[in-house]
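Much of what follows relies on a compact textual record of a protein's fold. Here is one such record, which you should read through line by line:
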Amino acid sequence: MSSQVIISKSALLHNLRAFRRAIGDVWVMAVVKSNAYGHGMIPMAQAVEGLTDWFGVVSGSEALVLRKAGIKKPILVLSFYDSNQIVELVKHKISLAVYDLKQAQAISAAAKKFKITANIHLKVDTGTSRLGIFSPAVVSFVEKLLHLPNIKIEGVFSHFAASEENLDFTFKQDVWFSSVIEELEWRGVDPIQHIACTAASVVAPKSRHCMVRLGIGLYGLWPSIQAQKRANFALKPALGWQTGVIQVKDLLKGANVGYGLSYKTKRPTKLAILPVGYFDGYDRKLSNQGEVLIGGKRCKVLGRVCMNLIMVDVTDVTNVKIGDTAVLIGRQGREEITADELAKKIGTINYEVVTRINPLIPRIIK
């Protein structure tokens, strides 16, 4: 018995349709990088392919996995790829981010060799100081690109630094991005334009341009309270995480629980052991403060989260037995534990909570 991640396809499609209604007549790129934010890249892509226009991935390897899984829609590698992957990527009609002239030259050479055209998306740094060409240098960079054979500047994109919380800087970034687009269009380049993420699609409508990159929102999670408040629609979390009880035991008052003797029972305690730990992505910071749902009730994690096990207090739950379902994320009865709740307890963001769930754990689509 181990844990499993349950994905609601209906929730996923609800979220995608809700964003489509909200953003209007622009394309949607479903971002399925990093194992679809922990949800399972291949099944997520297969589930939404009929309702999305593009897919976004972080690496060349992810893009090739999607193509080999039968995904037909356009795919953009948003960040990086190995030089020895370029030929295969171009052959599979995968669009590539470019932010360095040597990259572009390698892509051009590969495409020329096989007599095909490679589609690239120019990555512009408008203030996040990650990947990308600084916006003032874009024009001279593009002039060099235009002399390279077998390359088409299919798109231009950038990335907001703080659309979840700082609208002033977000608007500045979009102004800089728009000025780059104007310069490109003046030179006869009319690319697909995209900068808006989940948050920006809601809080900065003008930033939607041709396409919105839908990441965390696709999976039913909000990137910030501000974005959630600005939206006129609700999302449904698509991910649930559950395991099962593998042992139940009775402890006397004063018994030690777990490594480091970090918890001592304050009363006679019924303890349930669950086969999940920090190897699986259940954060060690949840030691002595996490909760799970068993029998529709919240049960506190006692002692330290182990590599493969946690211990929970089921004293107040009736007739707990081996095989009973324990919910780590999701709803059981009237209670619910959310990724946001766990993120708050461990001092991080909901993105990290779901993305760190071990990819070896089965993802089951329902």
Q: What stands out?
A: The chain has a mean pLDDT of 97. The chain has two domains: 9-221, 239-365.
